[in-house]
Amino acid sequence: MTNKRPLTLHKNIEFKNSTKAFQDASCISCVNSSCLINQNLENFSNVDFVAHKKTLKCKKRQQFIIEGAPVNGLFFILRGTVKVFRTGINGRQQIVRFAKEGEIIGHRGFGTEEYYSIGAIALEDVVLCYFSKDDLQEALLENPKFAYSMMLFYANELNRSESKVKSISQMTVRERVIDTLLYIYRKFGNLRGFLNLSLSRKEYADYAGTTEEQVIRIFSTLKKEKLITAQGKKIGITNVQNLKNEISEHNYFLDF
DNA sequence: TCATTAATCGCAC
DNA sequence: GTGCGATTAATGA
To answer: How far apart are CA A39 and CA A65, in angstroms?
Structure first.
């Protein structure tokens, strides 16, 4: 599935060569323990690899990967959350996943694919680490433990992606919305009784594969059923177990 | 504060 | 279930 559609221009894109975007954040002193590179740091004999990485900051709502753009490297999230999407039929946005610190973005284009098949937008202010393809390739060949960690990551992604196909094709809209809520819940957790990631109704819809109106309607029935609470963008899950029960018959996949 | 953007709801299909 | 449009609420410059 090659994707060579022309670049979709977006109003605020700028990451390459914009000097102020880059600032040094050394891997050696990095506190992000969920990063695969950080975890494998002591196994690298070649220090150049981490020395070559670039750090860039993205403001909220800034797009840093454009669908169809050539792949030159991989992004690792140092801080913040990001949504990864691809443009579907009728220009509708399909959110592939939400990613938080330590996660890798753009990995599907790594290796054989020349162009990104996904786009990525910062949901809040984000700090990214960017490694060039060449440096990464070298590091993977040299360091089996690192390669193995990456393989696990890929396998996990594939598993999640497959279960998502099933949920979109076989679950009802209500179930998909609940599934989305639980996904956000287990990945981002709760903060003061609300999901620790605020998304628009549209974004819930784009992930669940439905429309904004459906999400609104389902949210309001869930509210009446006292399963969730909502205050503007903040959604709180009041009864996780009941929600889980509703979709447990279809599988309930744990992912990070 | 005022202007813009998002959330809702009702209704037709 | 979906899509449109009007109304209301929330956000942010």
So the answer is: 25
- Phi-psi label, residue A113: left if phi above 0, alpha if psi -120 to 50, beta otherwise: beta
Distance A152 CA to B5 C1' (A): 41
Q: Which band of pLDDT confidence, cut at 50, 70 and 90, is reported for residue A27? A: confident
The mean per-residue pLDDT over the stretch A14-34 comes to 62
Q: Which nucleotides of C are covered by protein (CB under 7 A)?
A: 1-5, 9-11
Domain A171-249: which topology?
Arc Repressor Mutant, subunit A (1.10.10)
Nucleotide whose C1' lies closest to the alpha carbon of residue A173: C1
Among residues of chain A, what percentage have pLDDT more than 90? 40
**Which of strand B's nucleotides are less than 7 A from any protein C-beta?**
6-10
| E strand or H helix at A56 | strand A54-58
Closest C-alpha to A238, from A181, A200, A183: A181
Please determine, for residue A203, whether its predicted confidence score (pLDDT) is greater than 70.
yes
Check whether A16 has a pLDDT greater than 70: no
pLDDT, tens digit (0-9, with 9 covering 90-100), for A63-89: 999 989 999 899 999 999 999 998 887
Q: Return the C-alpha torsion angle A29, A30, A33, A36, nearest 10.
A: -110
**φ, ψ dihedrals at A127, nearest 5°:** -115, 125
Map out the domains of chain A as residue ranges.
6-160, 171-249
DSSP state of A171: S
Q: How far is the CA of A199 from the C1' of B9 (A)?
A: 21
> Which CATH superfamily hosts domain A6-160?
Jelly Rolls (2.60.120.10)
